[in-house]
Amino acid sequence: MVAETDGIGGTRLAVLRGQSPLLLRRTGPRRPGGVTVHVVGGAAGPLRGDELRLDIEVGPGASLELLSVAAQLALPGRPAPASRLTITATVAAGGTLRWLPEPLIAASGCDHIAITRVAVEAGGSLLWRDDLVCGRHGEGSGDFVADTLISYAGKALYRHELAVGPRASGWDGPAVLGEGRATGTVVAAGTGLAAFTAAGRDLATFATTGTTGGSGSRAGSSIGARGGRVTGAHAAIMPLAGPGWLATAVGADIRTVRAALDPLCLRPAPVPV
Amino acid sequence: MAGLATLLLLADGRLPSGGHAHSAGLEAQVSAGRVHDVASLGGFLQGKLATSGLVSAAFAAAACGDVTRCAALDDGLDARTPSPALRKASRAQGRALLRAGRAMWAVADLGREPHQPVALGALAAAAGLTPGQVAVAAAHGTITGPASAAVRLLGLDPYAVHALLARLAPVCDRVAATAAARSGDPVDDLPSAGAPLLDIGAEHHATWEVRLFAS
Question: Which HAMAP family does UniProt cross-reference here (chain B) (predicted)?
Answer without folding.
Answer: UreF
